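Support reply, case 0932

Customer input (verbatim):
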Amino acid sequence: MFQETIKSTTNVDHKNAEKHSYGREIMEKTLTLRQYTELVVANYMYISSWEKEWQDSLVNVEALNLNKRAKISLLLLDLKELGIDPATISCVALAPALTKAQFYGRMYVIEGSTLGGAMISKQLQLNPNLTGLGFHFYKGYGPLLMPNWKEFLAELNTLETKEEQDEAIAWAKQAFNDMENCFINAKAMSLHS
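Our regenerated output:
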């Protein structure tokens, strides 16, 4: 199935992005409030542009029911808790996806990170440095997590031609690279949390 191919061929890109997302600190429950703020800001930089693309997209992706996948409102709740004005955040410029393969390649990265977010939220809730925060973004879809993931994979696996699959992989690699840059840029920002 294509889902295994895209996972294996983007593994290095995934790891490169993860290098900047404080994985060790999250798992050891030592993530600071500043580091958590950087993660929320980095995700906002990317997700806000990604979800704006949905409205502008000419690609028919009705099968994905994007309304139930929206995360920007969750990030806005987290930013509000952290006292960060979203207007002060420069968002990434994304090239518009012109094909279903491009759209699905980029979405693979976002949906996969939502899957990982469930594990991350459990660790964040146990972190004494982050007491009282809601972790809205990382809790993501809640009980709909696995149904949404399976629904997305079923759509992803409809990309059957080599051309479609290569295109999806290229866009997933670019999405990981864009996310990596968002993590790097968020660390360089002057945040007051």
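We compared this against your earlier run and they match. Two observations from our side: The longest helix spans residues 162-188. DSSP finds nine helices and no strands in the chain. Please reopen the case if you see a mismatch on your end.
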